[in-house]
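Sync notes, pocket subgroup
Present: LS, DG
LS reminded everyone that the earlier model was apo-only. Rerun requested with pyridoxal-5'-phosphate included. Inputs:
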Amino acid sequence: MKTPNSRPVVLCMSGHDPSGGAGLQADIEALLAQGCHAAPTVTALTVQDTVDVSDFRVLDRDWVLAQARAVIADVPIAAVKLGMLGSVEMVDTVLEVMSLLPGVPLVCDPVLRAGGGGALGKDEVGYALRERLFAVSSIATPNLPEARILAELPDGTADECAAKLLPYIENLLITGGHGDEAEVHNRLYCRDGSRHDFTCPRLPGSYHGSGCTLASTLAGRLALGEELVSAVRTALDYTWRTLRDAESPGHGQYIPRRLPLDFCP
Ligand code: PLP
């Protein structure tokens, strides 16, 4: 039964990571922590551990559409979060889904590589995102290596990539976690010309699922009605804390701790 205090629902269209660090599990955990409900539509299955990805399979378009349509027909969607799409065809599938959700905020995490470096889609998927999905997105959240691929500027700075990408999208958050400066510089560029810099101390180690955590938290904050710049700040702060408290269950990267240990007493 629908209750008046039902949490905002965020439709997540992402891949499944069997290590549980990234993908839909990251989305679900981060959204739970925001007080939102995640509705996970699977776009792709991956074979990976905390070290790297070895294979992936993109689901049939009909299956993805059927999953999303079933949820959209049933519950009000307050925001959409995109993660791994895996193919150019999936970009068009998402466009079809978004045509059913006019005006709903869309956060696009342009996933092209796993944290360990393995490919989760060809660069062409990134170009299709830029050409077709950015126009219906509220914000995209690439890290600097992803922004360089999307902007086709292999050595570009964040500012140069943003100048190339902003004509395609309203707001762009380029994260700096992959650099080597003492502080991480996360830069939000808005089409209205405003720019906001958020810095945080760099943490040691490398993390699996940090981008998923950030983008889904941001979608959750928008679903709760938080204004964009504030939502970006909240999402960056939360993500930093999940990395500070990360755990290392396997032989590879750290996994963000997205929920408190005493979540279920
Ligand atoms: N989505 C899926 C399904 C993945 O498997 C991964 C990484 O392995 C990602 C997204 C991206 O992860 P990250 O948040 O570390 O960039």
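DG: The mean pLDDT is 95.
LS: The CA atoms of residues 84 and 111 lie 5 Å apart.
Action: DG to write up.
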